[in-house]
Amino acid sequence: MIEKVKNFIDGKWVSGISGKTFKSINPGDTSDTIGIVPRSGQKDIEAAVTAACKAYDKWRLTPAPRRGEIILRAAEILVKRKQELGTLVTREMGKVLLEGLGDVQEAIDMAYYMGSEGRRLAGETVPSELPNKDCKSIRVPIGVFALITPWNFPTAIPAWKIFPALVSGNTVVFKPSSYTPVCATKLVEMIAQAGLPPGVLNLVHGTGEEIGEYLASHPKIDGVSFTGSTAVGEKLARMCSALDKEISCEMGGKNAIIVMDDARLDLAVEGAIWGGFGTTGQRCTAASRVIVHEAVYNKFLKVFTNTAAKLRLGNGLLKTTDVGPVINETQMNKVLNYIDIGKREGAKLIIGGKAYRKGPCSKGYFIEPTIFADVKPRMRIAQEEIFGPIVSVTKAKGLEDAIKIVNDVPYGLSAAIYTQDVNKSAIAERDLDTGLVYINASTIGAEIQLPFGGTKKSGLGHREAGGRGGAIDMFTKWKVIYRDYSGRLQKAQIDK
Ligand code: NAD
Predict the structure, then answer these.
(1) Which of 103, 306, 410, 440 is paired with 38 by a 20 to 30 Å CA distance?
(2) Is 76 a catalytic residue?
(3) pTM value?
(4) Please, what's the largest Cα pairwise distance for the chain?
């Protein structure tokens, strides 16, 4: 079935003003068109921003617990339609069905968590230094937010932004990736069904170049929350800082697993397979590097290679599939180009290395799970984000050397260490310069009740998700209130 996708502006589903459209295609089978989507322009953005501005005051003044209740109702709707939405994620983005359902589950978890924030959103009350005076800090919304998201988590990442933005009292213009517009549309449809007033959540489809930048720099947009590539994130951050706008960016990664000589190798191999080839290597937290202690290097490499060789490529909806396609032709060419770069740099290609075009896979963007061994830390394949099913394996002399290699990249999103030694795990925990550190688990699998994000070129501004320092900080600002009921002029720092 081909969906006729629309924008959602001021509570109504509307066609793009210019009438131009583009297609959303199944990356595992390019003959399967999933949706015809409005290729919106600046006028559509104007309409959406105007609606979000109009709705703001009423929404900001709606008690936070009432805002939270609507989000909790959205969670219930998502639970009921999880199978339908998860299947769509697989069809439109390509990840295997279990992961498609996991994507939606993350959106559900976020909806429950952020819906409940409606009854927290806590500030602080502290004593005043003066009599008959009280002081408190409260969280207030920022205003109208632009939310710009990538394709690799088509429901989870939008949910990570939409729910905390709304529960905090902001209104939203959401521009999803043009590679997963149908998932975004279904998600917004389900959230709107929960009873959001018109204009609180608006959805505009289109390309980053044509409308993303225009939206982010719009004078009536107060804040921007972006997830995507480092190149685009840094550009938007520079632009927003010049315009005095709030912005937070979650960006690329070059994540690594350390395997120590005392590690449980069976666990480490499982972790490297899941981290490296899960979601076809297209997670910001994907384990694209494995740094192995020299004493177990050959043994690890052998089992890792043998296990990777058994992975089955195919349509993510089939139970027999372990690894789906990459998202599009551009990404496929980029990944294949990195394989050439790795070969030219002198890394040892030990498995994979080609596009996979057998049988039904000939109609999609499939790449063989690929492992490079003897990768030197400064090679481009060990430094740059590839975002595909390619893992580089590097030898380390010991813990200190391994940590140095992990940290010696421009990114700092996620790192993991496999060791049975509590002291080594403590040193890794202390010295790895990444936003997330896993011990005896892979680099992927963050839970939503804690802040999510990275250091260096992986993250700018506030973290996403839950917990102290998470997304509520991104979507609120602090206001401090002093109330003097003494009936006279009191002077802080002066009156004693
Ligand atoms: P991308 O940067 O190409 O696009 C992300 C979004 O930005 C899309 O909606 C796109 O349309 C829009 N966009 C593109 N150019 C723009 C511009 N000039 N102005 C405004 N908006 C623009 O990224 P992608 O290919 O969709 O996603 C893959 C990237 O996302 C990877 O680098 C990955 O690591 C990163 N990512 C990071 C996280 C994280 O939390 N750190 C999570 C998922 C993905």
Answers:
(1) 103
(2) no
(3) 0.97
(4) 85
